Amino acid sequence: MNQPATRRVIVDPVTRIEGHLRIEAETDAEGRITRASSAGTMVRGIEIILRGRDPREAWAFAQRICGVCTLVHGIASVRAVESALNIEVPANAQLIRNLMIGAQYIHDHVMHFYHLHALDWVDVVSALKADPKATSALAQSLSGYARSSPGYFSDVQKKLKNFVEAGQLGIFANGYWGHPAYKLPPEANLMAVAHYLDALAWQRDVVKLHAVFGGKNPHPMFLVGGVPCAISIDPQHPGKGKGPHFHGGNSGTALNVVGLQTVQNAINQMREFVDQVYVPDTLAIAGFYKDWFKQGEGIGSFLTYGEFPARGMSDPSSYLIPSGVILDRDLSKIHPIDLNAESEIQEFVSHAWYEYSVGKEKGLHPYKGETKLDYTGPKPPYQQLDVDKDYSWMKSPRWKGSAVEVGPLARVLMMYAAGHQQTKELVGMTLKKLDVPVQALYSTLGRTAARTLETKIIADAMQGWYDQLVANIKAGDVKTFNETKWEPATWPSHAQGVGVTEAPRGALAHWIVIKDQKIDNYQAIVPSTWNAGPRDAQGNQGPYEAALQGHQLHDVKQPIEILRTIHSFDPCIACAVHLTDPDGQELMQVKVV
Amino acid sequence: MKHAQQPDILPGTVGEGLAQRGVTRREFLKLCTTLTALLALPPSMAGAMAEAISKARRQSVIWLSFQECTGCTESITRSHSPTLENLIFDLISLDYHHTLQAASAEAAEHAREQAMKDNDGKYLLIVDGSIPMGNPGFSTIAGISNYDMLMETARGAAAIVAVGTCAAHGGIPRADPNPTGAVSVGDIVKDKPIINVPGCPPIPVVMTGVLAHFLTFGGIPELDAQGRPKSFYGETIHDRCYRRPFYDQGKFAQTFDDEAARQGWCLFKLGCKGPVTYNACATTKWNDGTSFPIQSGHGCIGCSEANFWDAGPLYKALSMPVSATTSMLGAAAAAGAAAGVAVTWHNRSTKAAAKAAHEKMTVQELSREEK
């Protein structure tokens, strides 16, 4: 008897993501995935660069871990320093951070849906066959979004037609157009292409919120102890007309009456697009792909650190998104997390290109984490990796030994399990509208739908934070910065702390050790490491690898099924692979300042 | 119904595409006027520019991403004029770009190879991210090392644009102690024209402006000693900062939310690197002219300068003495003094006026000023 034909399907580059990801999938003779391996193929080493520097400037370095989720590492970094030095930030600074983090979610999730994920479900070429009138009728049946006339869709289609006929397909070249896995009718495809373009225009306007508070986007500015943008308004002195006086004539700062109006406009634009375009599009497209509510689950266990405090980071009970762990789909119990307990969060390097002094089988808590670059993979150019040995620049993080999924699905489940009313209503509405059972959440499209629903929840919360900020200013509170611990001379000789946030892609934490006013150790465990990391010492898969298990590939040359599930996690690989830490000094001359 | 087929529109060109897409010549001229402003050209050049661009096929562009964070790509999506849609649907053919392209895996690599073959010697190569020389396994795409992919793709390129401080100067991966042996594009490619567009990330209009120049003239703009286009990197942030008058008057914020900070006084004592940073943030500003770091209360971190990560503590005031020629003068006089420093002639007066009055100035306004 012949051995069953197996095949290795290699997806590299995985495009429409952040960073450099490679998937190697072994399939059986029928094209079903029997084992998948997820590899990060780029390393920079930002933590080693951080050592010896001023902790107050760590945020700027850490922020460059990623330019897509462009503020999350800045936030985690300033919170880590504030945690180590016991700094409470003023209420206004907390509100401004909530607004900035919220805006990041909304911007990032919408761009992910339309510009990174959509082409897995939307056949651009099929849109050419659509009837603009029918497309208009479809769009108007879904929402009250204004740009929905037959003429509008006709124009978009005309543009697309000429673009395709000109023969230079640019970013659309070599897409899997016409693949039988595409199920949308031409009208839905045309509507989605139109919204792809609308979302491009929308996103560059709504990030003005970041520009007001942080000076620019990408990579806005942050500050240990608060936010850098002083409020240029003096509530005690009324200006001309009814409004408050703002400082300095036509000088002052960006956070004046004009800046606040820019923020309000951005919030309005966000809510409008989420309600009128993003949510209805998600539900409409998902309705054609119900098979994808039955596969792509991953691990079935979930972790969140929590986000959006109402009363400061030191009071987790005030977070909008709670912190905790859900194991094996059991929503009746949320397990608490202790970020400082050495037995809870650990990273393993059993299949990663690093060495551990304690041997490759043992895990290490981030405070004691170590990372020595040790590339043992094939010499480039190579055809395939040896996935039985080391195969990734990502480590394998585990909570009490368990692999867990982080991200939108984890957060929605956590809010759901904690009894958050709006979450329960939105999840209920979604399941009912799509006529799928609650188990459908544990799937590729469950993850994608969860991302949409949490965007709605956060967009609705934005107005409350903004109103509170304006109320504080009107009441005379313009404090944005706590300067009591700014001078390093006020610090103890040794301090350590952990800063957490929920990044759009999931739970993010930075651990810092400060010695003699300098960074002695810096470690980050980021969302895509939790999700995309390789197998651990016991051979347990990470979420990407587990989610791909059993996928049936229609055509191994066009592995659209792999892309659908991987994109549902929204990979961010520059984030996931940034780790090298000071213990690598034997290998790589570390500057000691 | 197609729009008027002007006799000078050739088949298969940008001009034909624009006409078919219903973009009128008037609209296209308007876009070109914006581009002339970006390029510091006299607005009268807009006609010639429209002619040059509309006779060409859409320029093939291959964008390679190495040791990077995708911040440069995110930044170009924020470009308001021209927009990313203007660029990729009307002006260029973005044949390879990991974050945006539909195809993955083999199909993606085929797109790159096809574009290289079809446009040999003519395509524009854009690179973001540094290249690790410590070990080829530190960064690979499709199993190919970054070094090999860069050298292979550079061979048939007409020119290379190194966007972002990582590609232009090595950036954060190269910061001390440079764990992966990261280098810039210019460190290893020696036989091609290279335009460095530093910034972490670069300002969107600076990237699109450089592209517009290449589309118009098929060549590279005038560069300074560090390979940067003079029109955007000719002056320091400090020289063009709206808070400069406070510096000249000796009015400084002492902390981040004192009364002086709220009044918008100078951030020099809080570590602002504006005096030693050459970039256009203070004039074009960010995100459609909304703000820039100093306006939002944080000193400039100097992100467009080579090796800025190792150039000194972020929050320590510069120790360099500021020379008499740039320290003693008021707003209007300072603009005059700086006139010798490669200021583009046509927007000089606007910049000075904007600084004096602290009005935000966008490229659109720049072009309006000249009409």
Observed structural traits:
heterodimer; A: 593 residues; alpha+beta; 3-stranded antiparallel beta sheet; 16 strands; 37% helix; disordered C terminus; B: 371 residues; alpha/beta; Rossmann fold; Cytochrome-c3 Hydrogenase, Chain A, domain 2; 5-stranded parallel beta sheet; two-stranded antiparallel ribbon; 9 strands; 10% strand; globular
Give the helix/strand layout.
The complex is a heterodimer of chains A (593) and B (371).
Chain A: E1 7-11, E2 21-27, E3 33-40, H1 46-50, H2 58-63, H3 72-85, H4 91-117, H5 132-142, H6 150-165, H7 186-206, H8 208-214, E4 233-238, E5 244-246, H9 257-286, E6 302-304, E7 307-309, E8 319-321, E9 324-326, E10 345-348, E11 354-355, E12 372-373, E13 396-399, H10 408-417, H11 421-434, H12 444-474, E14 494-503, E15 506-515, E16 518-525, H13 527-532, H14 543-548, H15 560-568, H16 573-576
Helix pairs in contact in A: 4-7, 4-9, 4-12, 5-6, 5-7, 7-9, 8-9, 9-12, 10-12, 11-12, 12-15
Chain B: H1 14-20, H2 25-38, H3 46-54, E1 59-65, H4 71-77, H5 84-91, E2 92-96, H6 105-118, E3 123-128, E4 131-132, E5 140-141, E6 144-145, H7 146-154, E7 157-163, H8 164-169, H9 171-174, E8 182-183, H10 185-188, E9 194-197, H11 204-217, H12 230-233, H13 237-240, H14 244-248, H15 259-262, H16 281-284, H17 324-327, H18 331-337, H19 348-357, H20 363-369
Parallel strand pairs in B: 1-2, 1-3, 3-7, 7-9
Antiparallel strand pairs in B: 4-8, 5-6
Helix pairs in contact in B: 2-3, 2-20, 4-11, 18-19
